[in-house]
Amino acid sequence: MGGLFYFEDASAAFAAALEMSERAPAAGLPPTHIGIQVGAVVFRDGDVYGRTVNIVSRIADHAEAGEVLTSRGSVDRTGDAEVSFEEARTAELRGVAAPVTLYRVLPKIIK
Fold first, then answer.
1. In what order do the strands lie in the sheet with 33-36?
2. Which of 49, 76, 82, 103 is the most buried (most CB within 10 A)?
3. How far apart are CA 63 and CA 57, in angstroms?
4. pLDDT single digits (tens) 88-99
5. pLDDT confidence band for 111 (50 / 70 / 90)
6. Among positive and negative, which fits the CA dihedral 17, 76, 100, 53?
7. Is the alpha carbon torsion for 15, 19, 21, 22 positive or negative?
8. E-only strand ranges, the chain
9. Is residue 48 scored above 80 in pLDDT?
10. How many domains does the chain have?
11. Does 4 reside within a domain?
12. Does the residue 5 lie in any domain?
């Protein structure tokens, strides 16, 4: 089972993903496997389509239980998010010519 959420603001998407991932087990839900991709989408008949949707689905497929992953492009386009990013691994995504470096999304540690 999966779900797709659309956010106008990437920072809000990262914060929501971390919260969902953290709260799922306590709510009796299975561990999440979340991918985030920043980019354009096409809205049609109450749904979203396009390359961004395809890529985020493939990123989520590479996420381990409880993990939130994103791409370098999304990290670069996020700005001053209330999260931090840690390089996780490189993956080949179907439909993408070159391997993609995936980054683990983590809560920002405030010192």
1. 33-36, 67-71, 100-107, 83-91
2. 103
3. 10
4. 999 999 999 999
5. low
6. positive
7. positive
8. 33-36, 42-44, 47-49, 67-71, 83-91, 100-107
9. yes
10. 1
11. no
12. no
User: Residue 80: which domain range?
Assistant: 10-107
Q: Are the C-beta atoms of 15 and 82 separated by less than 8 Å?
A: yes
CATH of residue 73: 3.30.70.1230
Tell me the C-alpha to C-alpha distance, in Å, between residue 68 and each of 28, 39, 44, 88, 91: 19, 17, 27, 10, 15
- pLDDT tops 70 at residue 110: no
**How far apart are alpha carbons 97 and 15 in whole angstroms?**
30
Cβ(99)–Cβ(92) below 8 Å:
yes
**Per-residue tokens: 32:** 């999440």
